[in-house]
Amino acid sequence: MEKTLRVLGGEEDSAGHSHSHTHGAEPTVSKASGTSISVSQNGLKSRKPENSDDKPVIEPVAASRGPSKLSAYLNLFGDFVHNITDGLAMAASFYASPLIGATTTLACFAHEIPHEIADYSILIRSGFSKRQAMGSQFFTAIGAFVSLPSKS
Prior knowledge:
By secondary structure, this protein is mainly alpha-helical. The protein has helices spanning 2-8, 69-96, 98-125, 130-141, 143-146, and strands spanning 35-39, 45-49.
């Protein structure tokens, strides 16, 4: 796909592969304002302030934020709908035959265990307490029973 876009865009390279590299070129060292960069013998770079006496520069690192509450609620809604479709699949397969129904149910359980663990971790990272996350997961699991038909 990338090669096609390059050809259509007129950026055809003669080497026939998509990554670029230089052979034998010296590495370039860029300099940020207010710092000096020295390259040691083993190729490692050291960054020091220009007007400091060998004190290392501590750069702030942006904290990686977890998923927001909105994404957690969207995940719960999607999980609820997903469980409804699992319930429909299990019910339909039991109507076909008990063996197919048991096989489908076993497959759904094998699929749901890692799925629910991942959803639980998303809820925890979104700020839910462990109790809230467990309760929310239980609520979404009810979706599988909502889709089961009642026998009359």
